[in-house]
Design brief:
The chain is mainly α and 115 residues long. It contains 6 helices and no strands. Helix 5 (78-89) packs across helix 6. It is elongated.
């Protein structure tokens, strides 16, 4: 796809989005995803064989937040809930995207010796 073509498509899409927001639906296609309400964080973490600290560091969660989720006094919301749902069903996708060499704990990776 050329830059000009991509730019034209983006402009058209933005125009359609504005029409949709104004209530002028002109046949826009919308998708609604269903994310489970009850996400079992300890089960996901244990299946991955990670400590709470490793889990938090590997996936960008605050350690205290993971603790609250695991105690049950808080529930994941928003993007965290979506990420956890993906980790529950297809952890390989997330791990592939993040990279195989990403550290799972707060430790620094060793530098490779050069030639």
């Amino acid at each position: 796809m050329s830059k000009k073509s991509m730019g034209s498509e983006l402009i058209q899409a933005m125009g359609e989005a504005i029409q949709y927001m104004r209530g002028e639906d002109k046949g826009s296609i919308t998708h609604k995803i269903e994310v489970p309400d009850n996400i079992d964080v300890p089960k996901i973490r244990k299946r991955m064989k990670l400590t709470p600290t490793e889990f938090a560091n590997k996936y960008g969660f605050n350690y205290k937040t993971v603790q609250h989720w695991e105690k049950g006094d808080r529930r994941p919301t928003g993007p965290a809930r979506i990420l956890l749902a993906i980790l529950e069903r297809e952890p390989g996708i997330v791990n592939k995207y993040l990279g195989k060499n990403r550290p799972s704990s707060g430790t620094k990776q060793k530098k490779r010796a050069s030639g």
